[in-house]
What we know:
Blueprint: E1 2-8, H1 12-23, E2 28-31, H2 36-41, E3 47-48, H3 50-58, H4 63-68, E4 70-72, E5 75-79, E6 82-86, H5 88-91, E7 97-99, H6 102-115, E8 119-121, E9 125-130, E10 138-142, E11 148-158, E12 176-192, E13 200-204, E14 210-214, E15 220-226, H7 237-248, E16 261-276, E17 279-280, E18 283-285, E19 291-292, H8 300-321, H9 325-352, H10 359-374, H11 376-387
Helix pairs in contact: 1-6, 1-8, 8-9, 10-11
Amino acid sequence: MKRAVVVVGAGPAGLTLANFIQQSGIDCIVLEKSSRIHVENRARAGVLEHRSVAMLESLGLADRLLATADRHGACEFRVNGQSFQVSYSDLYGSLQHFIYPQQEVVKDLVAGFLANGGDIRFSVSDVELRNLASSTPSIVWTSEDGTRGEVLCDFVAGCDGFHGVCRKAIPSTELTEFSHYHGVEWLAILADAPPSTKAVIYALHTDGFAGHMLRSPTVSRFYLQVPVGTKASDWSGERVWNALHKRLSLQDSTWSLTEGKIIEKRVLDMRSYVVEPMSYGRLFLLGDAAHIITPVGAKGMNLAMNDAVTFGRALADYYTTGSDVGLKTYSDDCLRRVWRAQEFSQWMVNMIHADVGSPFFGRLARARLEHLASSAAYQASFAENYVGP
Ligand code: FAD
Ligand code: PHB
């Protein structure tokens, strides 16, 4: 079997790329280690930037999103019971966030690709990448029924997330890794609870950070800063709700939090990671395979989709004009936006966790928050980074 492009991984990066190049007439195959049911129900991110939505619209894949997603243009900060809002949409070109769960994006992308005759092999295992430095790499894998498959290709798109095999197939001497552990852990909670807010809430409390994020009219995402090393099982439902009530509470207000059944609970260790360059020979890394970012600022899924479009354009150019300029600049083009998002996320991490690092950083966090609460210029800069330039 020979295909122009083999896409390893059917997350937002791999599926966006597959649809993009399919619509440019470039043939590809997608290899995914999990089942279709699993990838279509894996709840993770939920905030799409306008740039991601505009791209999905241009591919004709945004109908369900545009019909159902909530639009958001403001977020709220709560500091020891006092609150202020930043109306970022008003401050930055009326741009808004779209609240649409990642698994719904994945469903739309799988459906779009299959409707146009796309080839996705789910539940594959033992994926191996060979001859990446040659002009004809090959990929071998084991299918669900145990048979071995092999495909020769021009390019491999490594979209298999942080723990996948693609980045590991690159000799370590060819890569530089940048990583940072933020010294903070969050318990990420998904609950069958209607949102108690119209805007994302970032709450700073002496017990630690709490976040109330949005997913749908019946499901909400919450985050609780927990002591480093905590296990999710240490947090009973009662303990979670008590902490959320306490940390999100407002003085002099009738605001209340609606509880619901906890569907999922997991500890996130806040780590940032970037590998440079994002390519080796005929292998190009996209999304979490090349970089991970803390959830703070909601950039991860959007960066993955941006890599896909950048690589998709480079491939379309290569196959229509023979130019490899876009392929050569792919890594630098993506890394500029990746590092900008990392910088913003790090800035926010330091602002919303008063106890990271040292008491000195605690005071800096307080000064940063006071500046954000009181300065229109500082809010405008926040808005530019938050909703995307
Ligand atoms: P993934 O979604 O990880 O997809 C990789 C795919 O590759 C998976 O389907 C995997 O099964 C498959 N795979 C792995 N190994 C192999 C293999 N060997 N062979 C074949 N297939 C393989 N981002 C935001 O923008 N906004 C948010 O609000 C946000 N919140 C988040 C909340 C949580 C709790 C988490 C965990 C993440 C959040 N993120 C958020 C980050 C976002 O989910 C990721 O950045 C995004 O999923 C990256 O997409 P991807 O396609 O690069 O990787
Ligand atoms: C989320 O929806 O999970 C989310 C939103 C905003 C953030 C972080 C996470 O800053």
